[in-house]
Amino acid sequence: MAKKVWEQNIPDDLTLIRRLQKPAGRIDVVLDTDTYNEIDDQFALSYMIKNDDKLNVKAIYAAPFFNDKSVSPVDGMEKSYAEILTLLDLLGREDLKPNVFKGSETYLPDEDTPVDSPAARDLAARAMQYTSENPLYVVAIGAITNVASAILMNPDIRERIVIVWLGGHALHWPHNGEFNLFQDVASARIIFGCGAALVQLPCQGVVSAFTISGPEFRDYFVGRNALCDHLAKYAIEEGLRTASAETWTRVIWDVTAVAWLLDGDFMEDTLMHSPIPQYDNTWTPSNTRHFMRYVYNIHRDRLLGDLVHKLTQ
């Protein structure tokens, strides 16, 4: 069987390992986010903007999602697009609004056909301004349709980007039915198999350690500034709505993907061969595929301290 276009010309391991080192200095980043889906995306976007000394945000892409907060993937994407604009107002970054792009209206129909969108077209073109030695960092915190579509549109960008994706569960978890991944398994298979430099932050079993409680939301964020009031109000409302006990916490998943790019000692990771996400919500491990970086531990208190400091200053 002939290889798919995204399986061809995969870099050698040494090239990938060099790209997978933690970046030094100020770097250019784009964010792909289903911002209206959960409370964590709002925190992650705000945390990224507040780390402007390290992260130079070039574009923000609205990702599709479909759950009880949307009636379809396109509705989720449109709501996320509107929420991005709201947050940029609160952050005082109206200058970024021209570089906010609507993303895919559907998930990939297969592993060969991109979903056209302004976001995918922008990434497919924007990444060509970068090189293997000076890549564009793509932080993805939703279904990864936009990024996979850009790679299908222009496979040459694989050697010019580093993808930091919060998606899938830990390899030791009993299943891999994670929201960002199972919405669009075809896109995930492209991301894990195409040879682009990939950093994975697994959800259950790793990032699930990054929780914040109701009293912490109130003590650390309420009354600090308009942004923190907005974030905390929504987080507390969602926490109470979904709580299974009087003493509840919420995982702020997506903050960790931004934090991997920063200089703090917030997590631990390792190099490993890229596994294969399957359509039956399982992983197939590999000892022969190309390398990726796998985060396996989160230092919760250190990261929470930095998040509070950056958002409240």
Map the helices and strands.
Layout: H1 13-19, E1 27-33, H2 39-50, E2 55-62, H3 73-90, E3 100-101, H4 118-126, E4 136-140, H5 145-153, E5 161-166, H6 179-182, H7 185-193, E6 197-201, E7 211-213, H8 214-221, H9 226-242, E8 249-251, H10 255-259, E9 267-273, E10 276-277, E11 283-284, E12 291-298, H11 300-312
Helix pairs in contact: 2-9, 4-5, 5-7, 8-9
Word description of this protein:
With 313 residues, the protein is of the alpha/beta class. The protein has a single domain (5-210, 252-312), classed as Inosine-uridine Nucleoside N-ribohydrolase, Chain A. The chain has 11 helices and 12 strands. It has helices at residues 13-19, 39-50, 73-90, 118-126, 145-153, 179-182, 185-193, 214-221, 226-242, 255-259, 300-312; strands at 27-33, 55-62, 100-101, 136-140, 161-166, 197-201, 211-213, 249-251, 267-273, 276-277, 283-284, 291-298. The strands form 3 sheets. Strands 3-2-1-4-5-6-12-9 form an 8-stranded mixed β-sheet. A two-stranded antiparallel sheet has the order 7-8. Helix 3 links the parallel strand 2 (55-62) and strand 3 (100-101). The longest helix is centred in the first third of the chain and has 18 residues, at 73-90.
